[in-house]
Specification:
- Keywords: Membrane, Transmembrane, Transmembrane helix.
- This protein is mainly beta and 356 residues long.
- It contains four helices and 24 strands.
- An eight-stranded antiparallel beta sheet has the order 1-23-22-21-20-19-18-17, with no helix packed on it.
Length: 356
């Protein structure tokens, strides 16, 4: 009898939990949000996922994609027990490798990279989010130093089957190296630069295009946010300062296998214009670009991009949220959509944004 009562109590608790979840799910049903195309066509862009979240103990999560589909889920304690997250599950073998102390992890929007240098071996693993595939390869790399103790390794770029890695000495910031892995072979090569790192400076590699390398240097004991970067171009024969970039107070991101360096100027105030600078490594020229936005934008701080030099950005507007897609190469706004909130809930924020 006592066991029967215990089972009955447990059953009631489970039913109450499920009932609470179903009741709350029904209470949040309804098209609170809607996506409306302002410019361009959603069929001409990659699918994206914009995740919004309301504030409060009974917060709600909305997932909006380019097709206008909107999924709505409870983020309450009970809702979290039943919710299926859209994040990609990493393979157990890869995840176990990344959690080791001697493994360094880096990545971009398309892939995540894990590197381990130990016992004269360089172990490299790569996980691609879109295909959910893992690649791994071990290289011979003669060194007594180890990642996690003496070294910090991070992937700078991947071009076809070549991976470029910045290797920093943790205790000696001026001892920075640039390695290249040929994933079709079994060798690790060091790219010899024409100029050593200046004393008391730290070097950060930015882009590799054909035989040219762009990097920045700054004092490693200074305030990183307020210290000005100096840009340099190493063509394998000599090094020159890129004064055009030194004069800009913006950060640059490489595109098109390192040919273009693009610096986006994110406005601090409301604006209907997006501006950026492009440095072409083939012509060695800096050009200025801009596009007009039909919507008033503010707080632009969620960005993603594709290999086709298309920039995806999301931000708040005066009436809700928006997603814009800009063709950086041809200076065009190819899509803009606005997300309306029918209930005008206060405290809704962008939680995540990515190109699928």
């Amino acid at each position: 009898m006592k066991r029967y009562r215990q089972l009955l109590i447990y059953g009631l608790i489970i039913l109450m939990t499920i009932g609470s979840y179903i009741g709350y799910t029904l209470s949040i049903q309804g098209a609170d949000l809607s996506l409306e195309t302002v410019s361009g066509k959603s069929s001409q862009i990659e699918n994206f996922n914009l995740r919004l979240q309301t504030k409060g103990m009974r917060s709600t999560i909305y997932d909006v994609n380019a097709k206008g589909d909107i999924e709505k889920q409870s983020n309450s304690y009970v809702g979290q027990l039943f919710r299926e997250d859209k994040m990609t599950d990493l393979p157990d073998k890869y995840y176990a490798f990344t959690t080791k102390m001697e493994t360094n992890v880096s990545g971009d929007e398309q892939s995540e990279y894990a590197i381990q240098i130990k016992h004269n071996k360089l172990r490299f693993k790569m996980f691609t989010f879109k295909t959910e595939e893992m690649f791994e390869k071990t290289f011979q790399y003669d060194t007594k130093l180890e990642t996690g103790i003496d070294l910090q390794a991070s992937v700078i770029d991947k071009q076809a089957m070549k991976v470029y890695i910045q290797l920093d000495r943790i205790d000696q910031p001026t001892k920075t190296k640039l390695l290249v892995l040929d994933l079709t072979g079994d060798r690790v090569e060091e790219i010899v630069l024409q100029k050593p790192v200046a004393p008391k400076n730290a070097r950060q590699f930015l882009a590799i295009h054909q035989n040219e390398i762009v990097y920045t240097e700054q004092p490693f004991d200074g305030d990183e946010e307020n210290t000005k970067h100096s840009y340099f171009l190493d063509d394998g024969k000599s090094v020159r300062s890129i004064e055009e970039l030194d004069q800009q107070q913006i950060g640059y991101t490489p595109y098109a296998n390192g040919r273009y360096l693009i610096g986006l100027r994110l406005p601090e105030r409301e604006t209907k214009r997006i501006e950026w600078s492009t440095f072409d490594l083939e012509t060695k020229r800096l050009s200025e670009h801009s596009v007009s936005s039909p919507l008033v934008l503010k707080k632009i701080d969620w960005l993603d991009s594709t290999d086709e030099m298309e920039l995806y950005l999301s931000s708040e507007t005066n009436a809700g949220f928006q997603v814009s897609v800009i063709d950086l190469k041809h200076e065009q706004l190819i899509y803009q959509g606005k997300i309306k909130d029918a209930n005008r809930k206060k405290g809704t924020n962008i939680y995540d944004f990515s190109v699928q």
